C-alpha cells in the first residue's frame, strides 16, 4: 500500500503498530502530522492499547518532517484507499446476494467468489452444470494444463476450485479427493 511507503518516511513506527491497512489509512488521515498524533483521540479507529502505543511512538519518533503538499497528497491517497475499500465491500455484498439467489448450492459448497469465478470460466450457469466433474476440477488452469501436456510434464490437479475454503481446510493428502 502506497500510504505506508509515503508516510513511512515521516513516521515508520506506525507501520509496526497498526497492521490493518484500513485502520492505518484512517489513522494517518486523522493524525496528519506525527507531532499531532499525541493530541488526537483514536478511540473510533483503534483499540485502547494500540492507541497508547501510537501516541508514545509519535512523541519519541525522530524521522523526517513532511511538507504540507506531501501531507495533502498522502491524505488524498488515504481517501482513495478508504473509498476503494468501501466500494469493494459493496461489490462483495452485491455478489453475495446475487450468488445466493442464482446458485445457492454452488455458493454453499465453494463460496461466493469462487462460485462466481467458476460460472464466469464455465461460460454461464447452464454450461457449468453440463460440464463433467473432471473438467470442474481443473477449470481455470487451462494454460497450465496445456503447457504441461505440450512439455510432457505432470499435469495440474487443481484450478479455481483450489481456492475454495472447503479444499483449503482439507488435509494435504486429501485435497485432491476433496476437489474431485
Automatic annotation (TrEMBL):
<dbReference type="InterPro" id="IPR045056">
    <property type="entry name" value="Nop56/Nop58"/>
</dbReference>
<feature type="domain" description="Nop">
    <location>
        <begin position="102"/>
        <end position="180"/>
    </location>
</feature>
<dbReference type="InterPro" id="IPR012976">
    <property type="entry name" value="NOSIC"/>
</dbReference>
<keyword id="KW-0539">Nucleus</keyword>
<comment type="similarity">
    <text>Belongs to the NOP5/NOP56 family.</text>
</comment>
<dbReference type="Pfam" id="PF01798">
    <property type="entry name" value="Nop"/>
</dbReference>
<dbReference type="InterPro" id="IPR042239">
    <property type="entry name" value="Nop_C"/>
</dbReference>
<dbReference type="GO" id="GO:0030515">
    <property type="term" value="F:snoRNA binding"/>
</dbReference>
<protein>
    <recommendedName>
        <fullName>Nop domain-containing protein</fullName>
    </recommendedName>
</protein>
<dbReference type="GO" id="GO:0042254">
    <property type="term" value="P:ribosome biogenesis"/>
</dbReference>
<dbReference type="InterPro" id="IPR002687">
    <property type="entry name" value="Nop_dom"/>
</dbReference>
<dbReference type="InterPro" id="IPR036070">
    <property type="entry name" value="Nop_dom_sf"/>
</dbReference>
<dbReference type="GO" id="GO:0031428">
    <property type="term" value="C:box C/D methylation guide snoRNP complex"/>
</dbReference>
<keyword id="KW-0690">Ribosome biogenesis</keyword>
<dbReference type="GO" id="GO:0032040">
    <property type="term" value="C:small-subunit processome"/>
</dbReference>
